[in-house]
Amino acid sequence: MIKKKKKKSYTSVYALGQYLSMSAHKARRIVDQIRGRSYEEALMILELMPYRGCYPIFKLVYSAAANASHNKDFKETNLVISKAEVNQGNTVKKLKPRARGRSYPIKRSTCHITIVLEDISFYEQYEEYEEYLMYLKKPVSSNKNINLTCYDTYSSGGLWDKK
After folding, report:
1. Are 35 and 84 in contact (CB under 8 A)?
2. Which of 4, 29, 33, 84 has the fewest CB atoms below 10 angstroms from its CB?
3. What is the pTM of this model?
4. Which Gene3D superfamilies match (predicted)?
């Protein structure tokens, strides 16, 4: 088996959260909103989102910024979330006792979240700086022309047709 050596990046810092007790699907819904944004903007978004999974992700972003300022002396105003990924973790399986001696399984899903912050002050001197920021903010979907039609079932008589 060939192992690749990781290149040492001088402009990026990461924080890793493992075995967080939420499903990977719900965590991806939150992480997709902050990917490619600045550090301060991501904290504001995470504070105002109404989901329960925002708090562990908020702590991870905050921890990654603390790693950046402590370990590499980066300024927090120059940090951008360059990579944020959510992987599925182990599923904790339990049995809940029920009536008549039966039991039902309970499955608690976990996930692993990786947040990578990058210092953009290094890229500001180059002309590709704006292109790099647009590269980080990838569009989620390409279907922009979607026609949605809603039918009112009460006024059309479709549901309550019979008397």
Report:
1. yes
2. 4
3. 0.73
4. Ribosomal protein L22/L17
